[in-house]
Design brief:
Structural class: alpha/beta
Radius of gyration: 24 Å
CATH class of the largest domain: Alpha Beta
Number of strands: 19
Strand content: 15-25%
Largest sheet: 6 strands, mixed
CATH architecture of the largest domain: 3-Layer(aba) Sandwich
CATH superfamily of the largest domain: P-loop containing nucleotide triphosphate hydrolases
Number of helices: 16
CATH topology of the largest domain: Rossmann fold
Length: 461
Amino acid sequence: MIEIKNCTVTYAAEPNHRALKDVNLTINDGEFVLLTGESGCGKTTIIRLINGLIPYFYDATVQGDVYVDGLHTSESSIYDLAKKSGTVFQNPRSQFYTCEVKSELVFGCENEGIPEDEILKRLDETVKRFSVDKLLERGMFELSGGEKQQIACASIDMEKTKIILLDEPSANLDYEAINRLKELISIWKKEGKTIIASEHRIAYLWEMCDRTIVIEDGRIIRNLDKDEMKQVTEDEIRSFGIRSYVDRNPFEVDIPEATDKDNILRFENYRFKYKKGDRVFTADDVKIAKGEITALIGYNGAGKTTFLNCLCGIRKCEGDLVIDGDVYGRKQRKKKMFMIMQDVSHQLFTESVLDEVLLGMEEEDREAALEILKKLDLDMTEARHPLSLSGGQMQRVAIASALAGDNDIILLDEPTSGLDYKHMMDISDILKNLQSMGKTIIVATHDGEFIESCCSRKIII
């Protein structure tokens, strides 16, 4: 059993903000509980209380008591707490310690001093149950995002903990990989494991979980049992700022591909060769509807990011972009387009938000830059360092830079990974506003709900 009693948490980095406010929560053995709510509401803080990362890794003041399978967390060592629960993080790379799959799977057990015969027995069982035998001799850096998540889950399974903690495990996964993740979780559920999942994309877990906890600004505002979950409406769910519980396959969202009836851009004779191996990515004649929001859909590793990087000239490849009959080579495409990366922190360079927008202008215009920030609800952040902002705010800063540079074509790579409903709709509204200004937008995404909210054309890779 897990008990959180009268718990208030304040991080040292934010002394004036309480991440949790007098939270009481009991989770029974074998129960599958879904934690959801807007970004920053306190979901991850609850996970950190249970696995001991607070206070042993994250500097925070905790008022109240937390018990995990009989252990009081503040009176127990992180070593003892680690034996009680295993955690799968949003970014599996953050929890890997070795370079090879087999070594990674046995790493935790070796650190606990488990006898070799028992480790090999567990390895054989886990490999069969999780169907990762084909990955066993691979290097960690060779795996796709979905495969890395499989190995993260299998590594936790190896340690045989009674409690499984999942912190937004689907954020960077495609539709097929999410369904595989669902199968892995169902294995644990059938075994009677206690599972706590913090998620925005709740649709794949909705039928499986026993209870849903909705959190808002550090407080539990709804505690829905199975019967209440069956009765709650989509409108109610969205009023909490969270995603739909209805599954949306991105490949089946009913929007057309570009045709010659559209005013189209063409990317012709596309060919890119990867440095490792003989893999070549090709696309002979890609049609992109001018002035539309086009969803670029495909599985993890299909080449969506590679396509965007080549399209805008970041990567060198064969192929020409034809706009209104004019051919644009790589150097010309760089001036025509703006790319917003999946990890937007990689493209923010200055000391303030305002300077970041000014950097995108051919001739600096402070008043115009401030007007752009106001349009994107960033005018109160102009003096802040871009990397001090939330993920959604950093996205908007990058979009502000695109507007400042007066780029006609804007490319986005997975802009909604890890976003709640409210912030997903913020991005959707911004893109529709850009479309109304005559911009052509191409978005690589796995997010069926997002595609449905704003995209008018699609390309499947």
